């Protein structure tokens, strides 16, 4: 682990992989919960975890520099299921990129268990990992000026769902009616770092 | 009868409700938000007898005008401006009694960018994740003020402060921002690192609550490629591909993929919030505490 100071009260902890970042994030959240780490924000990202609002960053930096990357934490018990209609405008492009049919894109995506690696971009936007590298796709060359809320997209190693309408460059393969963010709900975010996620083709969702 | 509310008569260029913000949710992609010139917001609250967490109005360059529906005390601070009650001059930086139905106007900023209006009882819009702040990046919190909008007010607590005028810092003729290097200073050439802390920048007109943008020498990267997204802090000096440093302010994104060359001391950020476009900016390297 590489520990980089950020200003006077924050540390950026850099590790070798996304899996390590998720494991480190879980461990730091555990330490905060047990009271051995006092920090305002723990922000996981692609290869790092940011600790912001530390009272004693030097001591925490010394502790972390000496520490090993923790083992992956046990999986959460619950799996969030997100119903999807696989009819996105980039489905054919993604299928061509993968060298499969559009139906196969849906089958692979819905057959994968994802995990929220981190959140960002907008409240409730999760970067979900789980697709094997052969299914990673580049962002669109030209981002869309408006991606509708509920759009399900792919970019690089990630899949994600747009919580609200916004500009975006991800390849859109489907859409969902699930509400990713509702500040009147507790919790407001459907997805948080560590959450397990499965996408369920809408046709398979039982009628209410 | 009392109707504790404030009618917006002139919203101004951009007036938002702000309090201490909503820290603690960055891992969900929620910016901290909150008053950009936090000491000015705290001062106007103190002047009208509010608690520090009460919500105030933050104006941008052109001030605003409001009409309370009950008797209130108002204090205007931050960027200096003319204060009038029904057209009569009133004090800036001091508690002013505004009777029900009277028009309280904060004029255009004479210097600086953002004036703060504290109202006894505080602006009592519904909080979102524990804060009433408008977050212009993610759209959380109340929308910016519009002419004719009506804002609820809370119940006044303490009596207003007994002061004539509270001293406040002048808006900066030159903005000096003390920075500690990193975490990604190794992404820049030695020359860029030298330029960054020795050459003159200016505040760009494209600055907003998300970031203080600058114009000046472009900072050259020592490496190509992309930095994977990583967590961002308040005061981070991010360098986008055009090479011009951007200082992250309260509505900054929680993660970002451009390298952060340095971080501004938090004590220097209120002055950054008051620096008008064109103000010279100097980044001064200091030792980490």
CATH superfamily of the largest domain in chain A: Cyclophilin-like
**Strand element count of chain A:** 13
Output the number of helix runs of chain A: 4
Largest interface: A-B, 36 and 34 residues
Helix content range of the residues of chain A, please?
A: 10-25%
Mean pLDDT of chain A: 94
Number of domains of chain A: 2
Compute the average pLDDT of chain B. 95
Domain count of chain B: the total is 2
From the 3D structure, determine the CATH topology of the largest domain in chain A.
Answer: Cyclophilin
Question: What does the model show?
Answer:
The complex is a heterodimer of chains A (208) and B (289). Chain A has helices at residues 18-34, 57-66, 91-98, 102-110, and strands at 2-6, 10-14, 41-44, 48-52, 79-84, 114-119, 126-129, 144-147, 151-155, 158-161, 166-168, 171-175, 196-201. Chain A contains 4 helices and 13 strands. Chain A has a 4-stranded antiparallel β-sheet with strand order 1-2-4-3, covered by helices on one side. The longest helix of chain A is centred in the first third of the chain and has 17 residues, at 18-34. Chain B is mainly β. Chain B is built from 3 helices and 20 strands. In chain B, strands 12-19-16-17-14-13-20 form a 7-stranded mixed beta barrel. A 6-stranded antiparallel β-sheet of chain B has the order 7-6-9-4-1-11, with no helix packed on it. The relative contact order of chain B is 0.19. Chains A and B meet through strand 1, strand 3 and strand 4 of A and strand 15 and strand 19 of B.
